[in-house]
From TrEMBL:
Residue intervals of the CAF17 C-terminal domain: 131-201
Location(s), subcellular: Mitochondrion matrix
Keyword Transit peptide attributed: yes
Keywords: Mitochondrion, Transit peptide
One GO cellular component, as annotated: mitochondrial matrix
Organism annotation: Pneumocystis carinii (strain B80) (Rat pneumocystis pneumonia agent)
PANTHER family, alphabetized: TRANSFERASE CAF17, MITOCHONDRIAL-RELATED
GO biological process: iron-sulfur cluster assembly
Name of this chain's protein: CAF17 C-terminal domain-containing protein
Transit peptide listed as a keyword: yes
Family as reported in the entry's similarity comment: Belongs to the GcvT family. CAF17/IBA57 subfamily.
Amino acid sequence: MKHYKLRSRISLELVDKDEWSIWSSWGINEKNECKKEESIGCYDCRAPGMGRRDILPYNIKPKFELEEVPLENYKIKRYLLGVPEGADDIFENKAFPIESCLDYMGGINFYKGCYIGQELTTRIYHTGVVRKRIVPISFYNPNDSPPSILEYNPSLKFCFPVQATTIVREDSREKSVGKFCSGIGNIGLGLMRLDNVFNQSEQDKYIIHHIDHNNNNHIIGVKPFHPWWSKKHIKQ
């Protein structure tokens, strides 16, 4: 990271994991916040409903009157809102910031210069031509009808492929419509062609076809859903 800070007047230091911890809290209001002297944090602006993010000393918990849940619940919430995070969801060394929806989540400053990929990112932004983005997806048995709503079902389990496995249209041509990013249970994230998200008909079915390390064949149905930013945010 020190290599990329250029002339910025900041200092970076690697701390042990038992010094600080990061908490995500949702279902809170302005009256139910950590005091400024107790934490470093802010509201998570990546998507409506993401709540707060706070950094606290490792041995201190947020003083919110909320139930503490496993980290898995945070991942489920992110997937339902279409919020990618880190290399588990975003293709390493291959992803474009705008295709990862960082422009909608406050992650790109189009007025700042001197960063890697600036020219291409700015050109995509000003032309408005974005054909693919990461969106929430639901998995189902391809012999069943696609789900009509996006919801997490803990009783459904699937054998997921490696990241970036192609998602194809279920027909004789098997044309690519996107790539698998990550999943948990019956939901996940996919880098999908927007035409296949917003113009999907009832007859259109998408699948992932892969073979696991035991040489077992798997076919998983995939249904993309409109993310929170919706179609009106896309420049035509």
